[in-house]
Amino acid sequence: MSGILDALTCLAVACLLFPLGTWGRAHASTLVVDAIQGEEREHRISVLRRGALTCQVVAGVLAVVAFLLLATR
């Protein structure tokens, strides 16, 4: 039973992280304050996009782990 709960937990977190990362990548430029201009603004946008991509990668890893937990059960 613990393996199934672990897999469901991994899937639940993955289902939250992936859309969050997708939303973050799509809206990164609007999340940075307009008062910041130039190179600093571009840097902050790229940092936000990198963090959003990390959310998507972690969601993928969690989905694979959940599948492996269910497959090896």
Textual characterization of the structure:
Keywords: Membrane, Transmembrane, Transmembrane helix. The protein has 73 residues and is an all-alpha fold. The chain has one domain (2-71). 85% of the residues lie in helices and 0% in strands. Helix 1 packs antiparallel against helix 3. It is rod-shaped. The mean pLDDT is 95.
Sheet/helix structural class: mainly alpha
Q: Please count the beta strands (DSSP E, at least 2 residues each).
A: 0
What is the H-and-E element order?
A: HHH
**What proportion strand?**
under 5%
Overall shape: rod-shaped
C-alpha Rg (nearest Å): 16 Å
Chain-averaged pLDDT: 95
What can be said about the biggest beta sheet?
none
Return the domain count: 1
Q: Unreliable stretches, pLDDT < 50, 5 or more residues?
A: none
Number of contiguous helices: 3
Helix content: over 70%
Q: Give the terminus-to-terminus CA distance.
A: 10 Å
Keywords: Membrane, Transmembrane, Transmembrane helix
Transmembrane segments: 52-71
